[in-house]
Design brief:
- By secondary structure, the chain is α+β, with helices and mostly antiparallel strands.
- It has a single domain, classed as predicted glycosyltransferase like domains (Thrombin, subunit H, Beta Barrel).
- It contains two helices and seven strands; from the N terminus they run αβββββββα.
- It has helices spanning about 1-15, 100-115; strands spanning about 20, 25-30, 35-45, 45-50, 60-65, 75-85, 90-95.
- A six-stranded antiparallel beta barrel has the order 2-3-4-7-6-5.
């Protein structure tokens, strides 16, 4: 049983394209019928982990909006729940326009390098 859990974790980590970087940002997300406001736990170029006591179902589609530190324009994009655990959920970003992608990539780079 422990072996199965290790394999599952390893498989999930291998699917992630890049390492998540810790950051706390208020994030709003909505489904077809609900609106939520929580905080992120970490982010990378392809997604974000949202800390919540009531994670959504796997594969659920969401609309996200969050303000990057030092940035006046909020980032608005779609995403999909790809991981659910008791402390929150991992959201994979959908299509991003080039400006939003660049802003997220710059934040991740800044957080990783500490500059």
């Amino acid at each position: 049983m422990v072996e199965d859990a290790r394999e599952e974790i390893q498989t999930f980590v291998e699917r992630r394209r890049s390492t998540r970087t810790p950051v706390t940002i208020r994030i709003e997300y909505e489904t077809v019928d609900s609106l939520f406001s929580e905080f992120t736990r970490n982010i990378n170029e392809g997604g974000v982990f949202i800390a919540t006591e009531q994670p959504l179902d796997l594969e659920e589609l969401v609309q996200l909006q969050f303000q990057l530190p030092g940035d006046e324009q909020p980032v608005k994009l779609s995403g999909r729940v790809v991981r659910v655990e008791s402390s929150g959920m991992g959201i994979e970003f959908g299509e991003l326009d080039s400006a939003a992608r660049e802003r997220i990539n710059q934040l991740v780079l800044l957080l990783r390098t500490g500059q």
